[in-house]
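worker-03 picked up job from queue 'complexes'. Input manifest follows; two sequence lines, order preserved.
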Amino acid sequence: MSKKGKSAKSSKSARKAKAPARRTARSLMAVAASAKSGVKERVASLNEVTLAASDQDANVTRALDILGNDNEPAEVRMAALEALQTASFSVVAFAPVRGEYLATLRKVATDPNAELRESALGVLARNKDGFAQQKLLEGLQDPGKALVPTETALSLLSFDPHADAYNVARRIASAPPSDDARQEALRLLSADATSAPLFEKLLLDKSEKREVRQLSAAALHSIAPKKFQKRARELVFDPSEYPDIQATSLAAITNFSDPEALANDEPLLKRVDSLSEKSPAKVKQVARRFMTKFKR
Amino acid sequence: MTVDVEIQINDSTNPRARFLTWAPSPCRIRVRNPAGITTPFVSLKISGRSTASGGAVQFRAGATGAFSDSITLTVSASGNTAPFFSAGKFGRPSSSNGDVTIEARSGTTLVGSVPVMVRIRKNANTLSAPERDRFLEALAKLNNQGTGRFSDFRDMHNASALGQAHGAPGFLPWHRAYLLDLERELQAIDPSVALPYWRFDKAAPNIFKPDFMGSSDNLGTVQFNPGHPLTFWKTDTVPGIKRRPIPAFNVNLAPPGVIDEAATLALGTQYKQFRGMEGNPHGRAHTRFDAISFLSDASTAPRDPLFFLLHCNVDRLWAQWQKANSRFDQAVAAAYDENPAFPVGHRLADTLWPWNGVTSRVNPPSAPGGTLAPSPGVGAPGLQPRVRDMLDYRGVVSAASRMGFDYDDVKFV
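worker-03 finished. Artifact:
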């Protein structure tokens, strides 16, 4: 064998060694479904498997069986859920098993394992599933029935905000069990037009947490933009206002106000000009962006 | 009065057409004012002048042949145009509009110039601060707190529309058209913007910072720096973005379980094999975010702007694969997975929804957004693209198919 031949052969085998053969979905699912395999090995197989094509329906069914079987270890079921959720992106190919997937998730939504419950409810809530919405609302009305923490339930209900959810969110916002729950209740209400006075009050309350005021700024801007623009202008002029709130207000004015009106608003131009020279860094940055856009 | 020449980029005098990629752009030059020329023809040297960190351009006189830093053309003094081709020099994209100038000289005298931009889609993790901020501002403006044109893009990818875009071979062409439409809308706001990509097989910590795509708090609410343009992002009537990495995904590292670029390109040399990437890395990248995250479900994913960076990388991987395997020609069987049994919208000759405006039993009930946004510099893929129109994006098979985008790491030749 020539030297050239030898090196060609060795580089070929080196390449082979570098790239291990990919295991088929079938062989991966055989490991994942086998109780004889260790938990780590089963999870690794589910993390590697691609359940995308319709000719792999048997593998999808196996993954569904694992997910729905509460005798299986939670880690393995969680990995099965992730594999199925990944497969669900191939919408057309996944369509034949979608109904069964959602039905399995409804079952898992009341599972004793908290992570599985939350993940199942998450998928269902994003798909505006009535069963999941009902369960989440029931849990907020009666903590004894709660399947997930209050803030998580509110967060999941915000995928399809509606009147029933607003009523519960309003109640929680006024008597929250935790800061997180209050924040999520307010976030849910930020789609509710009747909550504008609440957000206006929170925005102007300097004793409120900065996160709540920021959220209130976005919410008020969303449901009552004219009212927010007026308040934002006032906040920019307020020398005792916090820099975060001033920067947020100024960004809203810069990006969403009527450019012609801004260019003729002499007092505002003068104020922002001075902020662009002397103010905390975060305000200065936004003020300079404003001046670049509107200076004459 | 001295001689004056006009340089046309992409065969146009429109300043909005003065954008180049790695693919050759047709250009023209003509004498606008022949003052001082005593001969029927004048010899003009065309070259590029770049700012310190600006893009770089190269030229050739004809449709084929090697590019060089400058060319000399003999141009009629009577005002007739002379053609030439220009392209960005690979590895030297622009960072701002007009950071490279194409100049024409007669002898040593400058007789004409135009500012241009080598506008290229770049890795979001290494974007400069001005590039990042221009992209974010344009995106925020397109969303306009949920009232802007962005709502069409959200509606193109909602639960009723997903069959058009997923789970069949049209997945990649559909998303290429979708991204291009969005990018052109962003460019109508700020022409210097190109979509950046999230290289999800590598660590990309800069993307997940509060000055860019935002950082996630413990509730999964994405937090931005005060004054950030996406502070007022709103979709489906709800302000804000929900995104929380799964516990195993540290955003300072590459997400676990997502196959890397080499493994993606090794899925196979046939499109039928390669389109398996819809599962991993594409689907896996989406599900590296948990149950409360917009990104982890196809029906809610576009509510998070990170979606577009993720899909830009999916498209880049397709571009890499096309380049590696010469798969730009729809007539080559391996370039696509053609089968008459596939659903409408997934066969080469099918027009793509929603740009075709078709609503019917097999299409979603509405077609949001109208036709695909046109470009001032290129004609492809047309207002109502077909699946097959999306393959030859850089005009390898037919120069007229060039769509005016390119990736920083995908060479033309």
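worker-03 released lock.
Chain A is about 75% helix and 0% strand.
Confidence is low (pLDDT under 50) at residues 1-19 of chain A.
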